[in-house]
Design goal:
heterodimer; A: alpha/beta; five-stranded parallel β-sheet; 8 helices; 14% strand; elongated; B: mainly alpha; 68% helix
Chain lengths: 300, 160
């Protein structure tokens, strides 16, 4: 079991590390005279356009400054969007949570939208990848997020234990019987979800009618990962095939939740990665036990 | 060799015997039926004959099917149009229902713009990376199915 824990920690190290490395990088600059025929997109990196971009310019939490020309739309979820006097934008501009500035002489052919439906999403992204210097409110945001997450996780974990004790026990038996397979399946599921979530969410939001489907899918995924965490807690609290005492199960659930909340308070992306990775073996066991309704016959 | 007629059942006599037995054990006496029982029953029956009722039910089922197909087609068309406008550079769905300044048109435009970073970030690596991602997803799906097939379960219930 120890080597799986090492693998888990390795995955934990690699995942958010790449994202944080991007967050610390410099702004992406399209120099004057430079022409980009396609689109430009960053996650936590500022963008400055002095040249020409034929397509869209988008960023998750980076600020976008346009001094040159953009043929498509300009969108930033969390960062400011500034169109300087020499700037030209052929499409629309959306600055969900940041400020939208347009200097005199700047030309924007489409609509300018500030705030709107994406404000909550932008705030969450800003929490994960803070843009610019943080105020006192920003410093409080991570602990508050951690507290809310801890309360919700504890409540849902206890609900699972109270309402589905049999199913949790069967999934926990599966994790104990086939730890490698459960861990493999859980990590495979998490990796596939991480790979598919962006384009899938984009397609569903773009389709307009898919927005409720996206919300339902996200809720379902969150519920499954909490289920996985409960299964892990039960497996850790049980000794061999002996069922765990309820106080021990609750104590280990609380300990797991506390560790996750602590990491979320210190570094939100790492905390979320820890939650998904820690819940993965349990999730794998849930899938292998067909939702906690059966036990594996043989380990081939 | 006996005949079936040898064991004839006298319903009337049997009923009287049964009533006597019931009365002896203190069973309630039979209540006479209400005088307008037949009229009331007839009134409750549907006015149309069964064949006509079946035809009407079939018509209703067809109407429901047409309605569902129309609704699914409309939602599918809206979805495809929205995706096309964001990915394929087709006409904007928001600008088809207004000018994007207010109301439904503004809401649709906001959704279209919100989808852009998600899709543009996913497509940042170009076609080759997208193809590799799709291949990786297909591979993950195949391994997922293989692991499940190699782990048969016995459905059980655990009492805790």
């Amino acid at each position: 079991m120890k080597r799986y824990v090492v693998l888990l920690l390795l995955g934990l190290w690699l995942g958010p590390g790449a994202a944080l490395a991007r967050a610390e990088s410099d702004a992406l600059v399209i120099a004057a005279g430079q022409h980009v025929p396609g689109n430009i997109a960053t996650v936590a990196q500022d963008i400055r356009i002095d040249g020409t971009v034929a397509g869209d310019v988008t960023s998750w939490s980076g600020a976008i400054t346009i001094a040159g020309s953009v043929g498509g739309d300009v969108v930033s979820y969390g960062g400011d969007v500034t169109v300087l006097a020499t700037g030209r934008v052929g499409g629309h501009i959306l600055a969900s949570a940041g400020v939208l500035r347009q200097e005199a002489g700047a030309v924007v052919a489409g609509q300018k939208i500030n705030g709107g439906a994406g404000e909550a999403l932008a705030s969450l992204i800003d929490l994960l990848y803070p843009a610019g210097a943080g105020s006192q409110n920003d410093a409080l945001a991570s602990p508050l997020l951690a507290l809310a997450l801890a309360v919700l996780l504890t409540a849902f974990c206890l609900l699972y234990t109270a309402f589905w004790p049999g199913r949790v026990a069967l999934a926990s038996d599966t994790l104990r019987l086939l730890p490698a397979r459960a861990l493999g399946l859980g990590l495979l599921t998490t990796s596939a979800l991480a790979l598919a979530i962006l384009p899938l969410a984009g397609l569903l939001v773009a389709s307009v009618v898919g927005v409720p489907v996206l919300l339902a899918l996200l809720a379902l995924a969150a519920a499954l990962y909490v289920y996985g965490l409960v299964v892990l807690a039960r497996t850790l609290s049980a000794r061999g095939a002996m069922p765990a005492a309820s106080w021990k199960l609750i104590a280990i659930t609380l300990a797991l939740v506390l560790v996750i909340a602590l990491v979320v308070a210190l570094a939100p992306p790492w905390g979320l990665a820890l939650f998904f990775l820690a819940a993965s073996p349990g999730l794998g066991a849930v899938v292998l036990s067909r939702g906690g309704m059966g036990v594996p016959v043989v380990a081939r | 060799m006996g005949s079936r007629d040898n064991n004839m059942i006298d319903d009337r006599r049997d009923e009287e015997v049964l009533r006597r037995l019931l009365e002896r054990s203190g069973q309630p006496a039979a209540v006479p039926p209400p005088p307008d029982l037949v009229t009331r029953t007839l009134r409750r029956l549907p006015p149309e004959p069964p064949a006509a009722a079946a035809r009407a039910a079939a018509r209703r089922a067809l109407r429901r099917l047409v309605l569902w197909v129309a609704l699914a087609s409309a939602l599918g068309s809206i979805g495809l149009l929205g995706i096309w406008s964001v990915i394929g550079g087709g006409p904007s769905l928001a600008l088809m229902v207004g000018d994007g300044v207010s109301g439904l048109s503004r809401a649709l435009l906001t959704l279209e713009l919100l989808a852009k970073p998600l899709l543009r970030t996913a497509g940042m690596g170009g076609g080759l990376l997208i193809a590799a991602g799709l291949l990786a997803l297909a591979g993950a799906g195949w391994v997922w199915r293989l692991l499940l097939r190699r782990t048969p379960v016995v459905y059980a219930e655990r009492v805790v």
